[in-house]
Design a protein that fits this description.
Blueprint: H1 8-29, H2 34-45, H3 72-89, H4 92-97, H5 99-123, H6 128-139, H7 143-150, H8 155-181, H9 189-224, H10 228-248, H11 253-265, H12 270-294, H13 298-303, H14 305-329, H15 334-343, H16 349-360, H17 366-381, H18 383-402, E1 417-420, H19 424-435, E2 440-444, H20 447-455, E3 460-462, H21 468-474, E4 481-484, H22 489-502, E5 508-512, H23 515-524, E6 528-531, H24 532-547, H25 552-573
Parallel strand pairs: 1-2, 1-4, 2-3, 4-5, 5-6
């Protein structure tokens, strides 16, 4: 009897699903992107990893993938679903607003990067036609990795999306150009490109017209059945049909997937489709990343590590500099340009397609293509690290730029209210102080929050209030009041105790997690401690009583009375015989 485990489909599915079940929760626990995990799994279980030992240890067959080509269709489907979901997040109006970036910065980035890389390769001994092919291939950036990390709504995400859209559209002309440069190319290459482009335009127009007419009716019928399975089947039918339509006329299938997402995004069924597709997209994208990892042979890297390192660094530096400078010329902020440049610096999954086309056109040797395939795989592997590096660079650049008119930190708390923490609570407190024209300064340890607040003109400084030397430098003895809004009970109590010991007359108002924490803050020396649970329950009670028809004045009076009663009880639990007085001389409660 045939053993199902001997079937490569079952064996590969076991490896992939097992990897997803282990990697996603494990890496999420350590706050590391699963992208790295899938790539490492590909290296480990691929033909160049444990898969190479199957002949010696047959049992490894069930936990390895020995045929990378067998799962490539699933990887391609993952990219198609990714572009489909990106299309769902967009709209035709938003795409039109990006047209200058797409055909301006996007075109310039691709051509200029390709020119610089191609020229460098030609100087290194590569013939001109091969250098052009390699330059265009390596100038492409990864849609599959960049957009999930950058999103499409942030300044970096919008810039990346625009450039990647142009690259996706340019793949077909690039492949035709390589065919025209081939030594065996005839005179029909240009005419074939023209025919393909005309057919592509006609197909796109037909999809837009038919999609607007058919899709709303089709999804309405699926919605009436109230069957998620039918809705999912209709969604997959649309994306696969659209991809096959563009592929049949010579365009990339991902163009069809993106268009399908855009068309559905204009309907009222966008949210439901996005929810149903999301799990499949993540799993299929994981399959793609595993195939990338499987293409990395650690023995080849060990043998040619110097050449590979030079190649990877060279490509990354050229693309990062070119992209960053072009975005700066286009008016992007310094931090945005730097982050987008570094994020877009690695090669793309479509680089592998262009390299194969260059080999087929006899522009480069198969061994040369293999070398650059490994470079591409390494580049894709380090993309998450590049994203982290780019984000760090952007933060430092923005901080330096925002320090053009810094706050005088030598006497920062002079006659101001000092707010420790500028999260959701601290921001509301700052807004109220601003509305009543009361001077304040916020202190925050999250540099991203500081950067964003400074752009909005908020007086804020970067610092970690857990460090005693920072508290010394703030000179809180000259402050009007201190507000603690951070959600860290232990740190809040430590700061209250320390500051109250130094400046016993300073008004200290602290956010408390619950009544027990509030009592601890009172024992530490807080003037007021505001428990979140108490205030939320009082606000709920107020809303309910008003809705029941009780007069607003009576409700407010009773709420204030209840707040004073509960606060007095908390103070007693904190061991206070009398309520601390505010600086104005008024009692704390009430």
């Amino acid at each position: 009897m045939h053993n199902p485990l001997d079937n490569p489909v079952f064996s590969d599915a076991l490896v992939i699903l097992g990897a997803a079940g282990i990697i996603i929760p494990a890496f999420a626990r350590f706050r590391i992107t699963p992208i790295i995990g899938f790539l490492l799994i590909g290296i480990l279980v691929g033909p160049s990893g444990l898969g190479s030992l199957v002949d010696e240890y047959p049992w490894l067959y069930h936990v390895t993938i020995t045929d990378s080509e067998a799962i490539e269709p699933y990887a391609e489907f993952g990219i198609i679903l990714l572009l489909f979901t990106i299309g769902l997040e967009l709209s035709f109006k938003r795409l039109w607003s990006l047209r200058k970036l797409v055909f301006g910065v996007g075109a310039a980035e691709l051509l200029l990067s390709a020119l610089i890389i191609g020229t460098a390769l030609n100087m290194a001994g590569q013939n001109w036609s091969g250098a052009i092919g390699l330059g265009l291939a390596l100038a492409l950036s990864s849609t599959a990795l960049v957009l999930p990390m950058s999103g499409t709504t942030s300044p970096v995400g919008r810039a990346a999306l625009a450039m990647l859209l142009f690259e996706d559209v340019a793949i077909v002309p690039i492949i035709f150009l390589l065919g025209a440069l081939a030594p065996i190319a005839g005179t029909s290459a240009a005419s074939s490109l023209g025919v393909t482009l005309m057919l592509g335009v006609a197909t796109v127009v037909a999809m837009l017209v038919l999609g607007r007419l058919i899709l709303p009716r089709m999804f309405a019928q699926a919605a009436r059945t109230k069957s998620p399975e039918l809705f999912l089947a209709a969604s997959l039918l649309v994306v696969i049909t659209a991809s096959l339509a563009t592929a049949s006329v010579g365009l990339s299938p991902i163009v069809g997937a993106l268009l399908a997402g855009l068309i559905i995004a204009e309907t009222e069924y966008r949210g439901e489709v996005e929810i149903l597709i999301e799990p499949f997209k993540g799993l299929a994208l994981g399959v793609f990343l595993i195939t990338v990892g499987m293409s990395i042979d650690l023995r080849v890297i060990a043998a040619y590590w110097q050449e590979l390192a030079i190649a990877v660094v060279g490509v990354v530096v050229v693309k990062a500099v070119v992209t960053g400078l072009l975005l700066r010329v286009a008016g992007a902020r310094r931090g945005t340009a730097a982050e987008a440049g570094v994020l877009m610096a690695s090669p793309s999954e479509t680089t592998l397609i262009v390299l194969a086309a260059a080999v087929q056109a006899q522009l480069i040797q198969a061994t040369t293509a293999q070398f650059w395939q490994i470079v591409t795989a390494i580049g894709l592997t380090i993309t998450p690290l590049l994203a982290k590096l780019g984000h760090t660079m952007a933060r430092h650049l923005e901080m330096r730029a925002s320090d053009a008119a810094p706050i005088d930190q030598s006497d920062i708390a002079n006659d101001r209210t000092v707010i420790f923490g500028y999260g959701r609570v601290g921001e509301i407190v700052a807004d109220m102080l601003k509305e009543h024209q009361q001077p304040f300064v916020a202190v925050e340890s999250n540099v991203d929050v500081v950067m964003q607040a400074r752009r909005a003109g908020v007086p804020i400084v970067f610092g970690d209030v857990a460090r005693p030397e920072l508290l010394d430098r703030l000179r809180l003895g000259h402050a009007r009041a201190l507000i603690l809004t951070m959600d860290d009970p232990v740190l809040a109590a430590q700061i209250v105790r320390r500051v109250h010991g130094w400046v016993p007359d300073l008004t200290i108002i602290a956010r408390a997690r619950d009544t027990d924490h509030a009592a601890e803050l009172y024992r530490a020396g807080a003037t007021l401690a505001v428990p979140e649970a108490l205030e939320s329950s009082l606000q709920l009670s107020e809303a309910l009583l008003v809705d029941l028809g009780i007069a607003m004045g009576h409700v407010i009076a009773s709420i204030h009375g209840k707040r004073d009663e509960l606060r007095h009880r908390i103070m007693e639990e904190g061991g206070l015989d009398e309520k601390p007085a505010l600086r104005s001389g008024e009692p704390a409660a009430g």
